[in-house]
Amino acid sequence: MGRYLSIFLTFARACLVRDMTFRANFLLECITSLGWMSMNLAFYSLVFQFTPEIGKGTGWTREPFFAFVATGLIINSIVQALFMPSAEELTEMVRTGGLDAVLVQPLDAQFLLSMHRVDFSSFANGLVGCGLLGWALARMEHAPSTAAWLLYPLLILCGVAILYSLVIMLAAATILLGRNQSLYDFWFYITNFSRYPAEIYAGPWGGPLRALCTFVIPILLVVNVPARVIAQPLEDGAWGLVALAVVAAVAALVISRLVFQTALARYRSASS
Amino acid sequence: MSGQPMTVAERLGPLAELATRLRIWWTMLAICLEERLAYRGDFILGTAMRFLPIVTQVFLWTAVFTATTRGDIAGYSRTDIVAYYLLTMVTRAFSSMPGLAGGIARSIRDGSIKKYLVQPVDYVSFLLAARIAHKLVYYAVAIIPFTAVFFVCRGYFPPVPDAATITAFTLSLVLSFLLGFFMEAMLGMLGFWFLEVSSIIFAYMLVQYLLSGHMFPLDMLAGVSTGIAGVSVADAVRWLPFEYTAYFPAAVWLGKIRGPDLVRSLAIEAAWVVVMAAACRLAWWRGTCRYSAFGG
Amino acid sequence: MHNSSGANTGRVIEVESLAKAYRVFDKPEGLVASVKSLFHRPSRLVEALKGVSLTVGRGEFVALLGPNGAGKTTFLKLLSGIVTPTRGTARVLGHVPWERADDFRRRFALVMGQRNQLWWDLPAAESFRLHQEIYRIEPARFARTRDELVDLLGVGRLVLQPVRDLSLGERMKLELVAALLHEPEVLFLDEPTIGLDVVAQHTIHEFLRHVQAERRTTVMLTTHYMKDVAALCERVVVITHGDVLYDGSLAQIVDRFTTHKIVTLDLDEPPEPGRVERFGFPCEIRGPQVVLRIDRGRIADVLPEILRTAGVRDVSVEDVPLEEIVAGLFRAAPAPAERAVGAGA
Lengths: 272, 296, 345
Known about the structure:
Helices cover 78% and strands 0% of the residues of chain A. Chain A has 272 residues and is mainly α. The two termini of chain A are 35 Å apart. In chain A, 43% of the residues are buried. Chain B has twelve helices and no strands. Chain C is of the alpha/beta class and 345 residues long. Helix content of chain C is 35%, strand content 30%. The N terminus and C terminus of chain C are likely disordered. Chains A and B meet through helix 2, helix 9 and helix 10 of A and helix 2, helix 3 and helix 9 of B.
């Protein structure tokens, strides 16, 4: 275990050194992600000019909603920084045969393929998210309980775990199918559902969609559960959700690993 | 030409040239189509999936409407909003030019643009023809999912507008294609002067994202003041080219812009197309002069 | 059941009827075909390897020779566990390679020419350190091995530079160092000298010979350069179209596969037409120099006759060059067995 941590730190250090060498580029990437984020925040502010709440009686008024957005920023930035860069490189690796080199090393392939690259500029969004969270909590009437504060980091980890499992499933598909431009679009389209509180999915179409995205592909548990815990009073229903999030995270990790191992067993390798 | 009568070939000269051009263009079309079909899994899935973000937006706005006391938001009812987003998808199918600016910048950077300086081919026209081919292929393929979605969502649309509105709508779409093309081509050509155009392109995309109406109907900015008395952001944005790449045609179809306002906006759109086309030509001319001066 | 001490039996690599087939989809040509391909994609089953059996003992140095697409790289990939076979069995150091046991992976190394395994962003020294962690090499031993290898290849001044800044030859040498840091018992090399200049090739040959002799590493190398083979190995396995065509010593290839020798004559003056044909088959006539192919069985008779003939200033007798023999082998092999399968999309 310690060995894996030490190896990961070596990778991370190398990436940091590289980012600092190309400082201008690094700053540009930070600004890029912050730019997109600001646009979205401006949009949300605009929406709240027209309505006091997102969905009647859901509790997502302005400040809680921004706490929700902040939670999303934190979780997504962790995934974008730690796992996405390596996953994106996987296509290249499969194409050039770099994956072969990984398979002969006495180290877990899933670890290597999902964590050998770190994109530090993606943390920028997460930092802003923390700031936004602080701002929102300060202005909210409701203050989170101690239990909420303790649960929040755990639930963030669960959200990260679920998204990580999704990354691994996409990686497995890459290994099996080879090229995959639309698979990364896939990522965007799936995670797009988790951008807003689950309550918006209501009605004859929304209900089933919400169930699908909670129980089958638990994308709605990623941001919703920690955000709800920190921004809304903890009633009885919330504990059920917390348990569900933890179970989903564990199940997702296990299932995605199985799928990934299967993909590796069937690996075709680029032609010589 | 020493006073002899023209041969048949010479008489047909310009026609033959046109025929050659058409033939080249047809080949381009065929290749585009093949390319698309090669990624068969991708395109069927990909085209359908483009609608997914709309689904989320629709649910969001529905939720917004349930909690608001107003009947409409900036003149858009609950059903109007859905229709609006679907229509912006149509506009963006015309005006979005993926890879155009970046592609031009890249070919300037790696020198592959040189062959266009040497050949008797007008680069801009060539790119335009290629884009038209691409778009036609895209429409041929995307018509199926688009029709399916529009049919399923027909309840959200107001009754079909009159002929004049439809004409205006079609005109605005064609203009939005040209506008999108010339704007992005211009951006790409900035690569003659700036090494890292990607930052400029990024800034453009950012502004476009906000001000084109892609995210929300620009009428919502009517309540936001620019700081100048009586001028809202919505008013100011009308004079900029951005809204014509997503918002304008959609608003036209939904009848949000009528009469003299409509005519004026069409004129502004057309004017921007002319301006951008001219800027493009100028940039090409000045850029290539500069490029050859410095060598590749 | 793994017999991890393969050294005891002396047989390090045991392969029995190993076969690998791939399904390959044909790319449609033209517009009509592209549209059709939406509904039905014709595919073929390509047999990269058709059933190869061989055994390699400890300390042997084996060359896998064959034209492109023969299956040599596929064979190495099977033995290093990168892909799983369609049929057949194999054991390397007592392990089944495609089970990818960590114990197995710690005991061998794979180096692929033109495809680097070092981490691009790191300087080689960092890559080595990473290697030490991954392979759990004890620090003192690691330092000793590393220094020795770096010295042997003369790459000391390169280890601190980022790998991507180095030339192909320099990178290859560093790859070799990295591969041997954990003192593997088996070394697989896939076209290690491809794209390298003569000096680099020579250095690497020397290095491999030294290392193999000193540590009794079992080495299996694929190449299509005869130079590699001639410099390094006694045992050659010729693979064409997925089958083993020949497995034996290099010296014997000449005996087995050639029927004639090359005799070069230096004459006083260019020969009259028809004059040299009675000795053998003339391949080249360059002025006063004639190159003949003479059947081996006849050499003993023909040669004295040639020497007695007036006007012959010099004679030299050589074997057919190895390249030619091997090329001939490649050409003579039967056509690949591909079954066109009109399977559904």
